[in-house]
Design goal:
- The chain is of the alpha+beta class and 491 residues long.
- Helix content is 15%, strand content 31%.
- The protein has nine helices and 32 strands.
- It has an eleven-stranded antiparallel sheet with strand order 16-15-14-13-10-11-12-9-24-28-27.
- A hairpin with a 2-residue loop joins strand 7 and strand 8 (104-115).
- It is elongated and about 90 Å long.
Length: 491
């Protein structure tokens, strides 16, 4: 090294337990803090939600310049996005902001929490069989979660959690954290399911299952489809079988067909009969018709009952999305033969598809707000928990409404599509960094032992260098009085 050359000065970041030493012009391991001329700076701007009727605008990608344009609104809400974190836990939250709202002095405490206990619940609108319940979900070969109980028309995944983040190998924790971060920031993630499919999941987009984008979620189970469309089939067909992995429907046996005085057809299906016209387990689960492994619908039929069936009987077989259908007539030996479908039946098939909602992936972040969050609000953390349960404190994430689970602690769940894009970060402990805000009256904040001396007026925070986004449509204002139990007190 030549004389006079000096090694760049490093500063220590104390925003999380990693405690990085950062050289001038470099960022820390989390890419959220950097050394700028010897000063520790936050790379993402503090984000303000303005209460307007415009849609949220996305955050800028790393490396892009922001031109300073703002969205004009009637009242700012300081979110925790870009607020930074505090470590160790006893430090007050980065911003404790006060403003008057409709004559009430309100305080919002904001922090980007470090969540080791967190994960996502993923709802995937599809009837396709993606894997057995409890099957392991993997990314890059590492287990990051499992398949949950299916819901109506949707499959469910539970991904992340402390056992995957910290309870396995170092690689498992790293891969899990990276997958959670990308999902929460609305980026695509490819997962494989043991004994099941390979799938690309992205919040707000259709799933791609084994390379094929899903289009529709089912209108209902086979029985429900019979109930909805029986009258529209009546007079145009003698029998309809709606193929479904869970409940396959047979029109003339079903109460809907009986109510229309339809003649029993003698068409018989495999599977376990439940109630009239409703059959379970007609085939194995799969990616074919109605979430079964069926590619040829005739394989679920037994021989027709010769005492009831007749030559020329018109048979429609259709899936629960209307995307697959086949039309047959019975020959003299009562064997179904392919026939040209009628325009009237095509109209109903199209109507079934019309009544199916688009297939989407929904990603809900879920995390437990522990010591680092609560201590940043008050020196007596249990009082914050009680205040939340008593509806004196409103919890939001990036300005979006969060569902607080009942029971002990502050366990929150929020749809990432309701939050500003790129709201989430990470620390390589590993853990996710997520925004969380606690809003309450100033008097209630004092009662729970809040850090009153750190309150600052909103005008001191809402400066020209903050990033402003519009309030998400249909999202409530966290400051609105209807969020709080005291608004209902008439005494």
């Amino acid at each position: 090294m030549a004389d006079g050359d000096t090694k760049p000065e490093k500063i220590r970041c104390d925003a999380c337990p990693v405690m990085c030493y950062i050289a001038d012009g470099k960022s820390g391991a989390c890419d959220r803090y950097a050394n700028h001329g010897g000063d520790l700076v936050r790379l993402d701007a503090l984000t303000i939600v303005e209460t307007t009727d415009q849609a949220l605008v996305p955050f800028l990608k790393t490396g892009e310049d922001w031109d300073g344009d703002i969205v004009q609104g009637s009242r700012p809400f300081v979110t925790a996005v870009g607020a930074g974190t505090t470590y160790p836990d006893y430090k007050p939250a980065p911003f404790i902001v006060a403003q008057e709202v409709d004559g009430v002095d309100m305080v919002t405490v904001v922090t980007e929490g470090i969540f080791s206990y967190c994960g996502v619940k993923v709802k995937i609108d599809t009837d396709r069989h993606i894997g057995d319940e409890r099957a392991v979900v993997r990314v890059e070969g590492e287990a990051i979660g499992h398949v949950m109980t299916s819901e109506y028309g949707s499959k469910m995944l539970s991904l992340g959690g402390v056992e995957h983040l910290t309870g396995g190998s170092k690689k498992e924790g790293r891969v899990t954290c990276d997958a959670l971060l990308r999902l929460c920031n609305r980026e695509p993630v490819e997962v494989t399911i043991d004994g099941g499919v390979t799938m690309v999941v992205e919040a707000g987009k259709a799933p791609i299952i084994n390379g094929v984008p899903e289009k529709l979620m089912r209108v209902g189970c086979g029985s429900a489809t019979i109930g909805m469309f029986a009258k529209q089939w009546h007079g145009h067909v003698d029998e309809v079988v709606v193929v479904d992995d869970h409940i396959t429907g047979v029109l003339t046996e079903h109460e809907a067909g009986k109510g229309l005085d339809m003649t029993p057809s003698g068409i018989r299906v495999n599977g376990r009969r439940s109630t009239p016209g409703r059959y379970f387990q007609v085939a194995d689960p799969g990616t074919g018709w109605g979430g079964t492994d069926v590619e040829d619908p005739l394989t679920i039929l037994r021989d027709a009952d010769p005492k009831r069936a007749w030559p020329g009987l018109r048979l429609l077989m259709i899936s629960t999305t209307g995307e697959q259908w086949a039309y047959f007539t019975l020959d003299d030996d009562l064997i179904p033969q392919p026939a040209k479908i009628t325009p009237e039946l095509l109209v109903v098939a199209d109507r079934i598809a019309e009544n199916c909602e688009p297939s989407l992936c929904s990603v809900l972040f879920m995390g437990g707000a522990g010591g680092s969050l609560r201590a940043g609000v008050t020196e007596n953390p249990v009082r914050l928990t009680r205040s939340v349960k008593e509806s004196l404190t409103h919890v939001s994430c990036g300005g979006a409404e969060a569902y607080v689970w009942p029971g002990g602690g502050i366990t929150v769940m929020v749809d990432v599509m309701d939050m500003p894009t790129n709201s989430f970060g990470y620390v390589p402990t590993p853990a996710l960094v997520a925004p969380i805000e606690f809003t309450l009256r100033r008097e209630d904040y004092g009662t729970l032992g809040g850090h009153m001396e750190h309150i600052q007026p909103v005008r001191d925070v809402v400066t020209d260098d903050v990033r402003r986004v519009a309030q998400q449509l249909l999202q409530p204002d966290p400051n609105a009085r209807e969020n709080y139990g005291w608004s209902k007190d008439k005494t």
